[in-house]
Amino acid sequence: MSVESPCIAESQPRAFADNDGVEHGVSILPNDASSNRSVSHVKLARLHPKEHGAYFVLAIPLVVSLFIAGLTPTTLSIAIAAFAAFLAHEPLLIVAGSRGNRVRESTPAAARTLVVRIAVTVVCGTTAFWLGGQSVRLGLITCIVFSGIQLVVSTKGYSRTLGGQILGIAGLTLPSAVVLLAGGIELAAAVQFWLMWFAGRMATTVSVRSAITHHKSSASLWATRTCDILLAIAFAVCAVGLFRGSAIWFVTLPLLLAASVLRFFSPHPRHLKQVGWSLLVVNTISGIIAIGIWNY
User: What pTM did the predictor assign?
Assistant: First the structure.
């Protein structure tokens, strides 16, 4: 999840981002000319999710589950529906006005894009619901519930809070478990697969937030302690899985190692881009390990 830090220029005009998420240029025109050309100063909003890390939270477990469960009409329908619903999130927020009125007015394509992506989600989701068994249908209903909760959280402006991010991780990793169910994997194993990815990703996410908090002069002690408590919970969940003898939990080791490094070395927020790419590599390694262990 990305963290935005708006900059204010005092010496010369430059781009800045206001609360509605659209970048604007500082006008150097007279007031009347500025008002007449205000539309030209608004860049079209992006119609895909801005949080680049979220793509990999969804995609890596989903790809791994497809390798394990195999490609069938049901598993493919679930995967396509999940990704289409994910891509529909941003245009939905724009159309709903959560990104600001200027963003909605300057991005008329958002409504059309939303209709297409929702249509793909509904068609593929309905196909999977019709083809799948009872456990698959229960899993799809659970995904819908998580999506609804996440939508409410986002429209209220809480998606970047710690709770909102953890909820997002839970919802984004859930479709991979449903794919496993569609591939004939037992419910207990599918739930364990989801819990494994959720705990591992929660550990890395909390560690990143902890690093950011560490460099904030205004951060409270409670914020740091909350991150540490959640990190300890994630480690405990993974430890229980490992000690119970389930080899698949070894997948979490690269994620836990990365979380530990981030927590104890606390890289500066200016290095978050490099941290993000490093976490992508770590998640990919965990995905390769998962495929290898499951097929062993």
Answer: 0.80
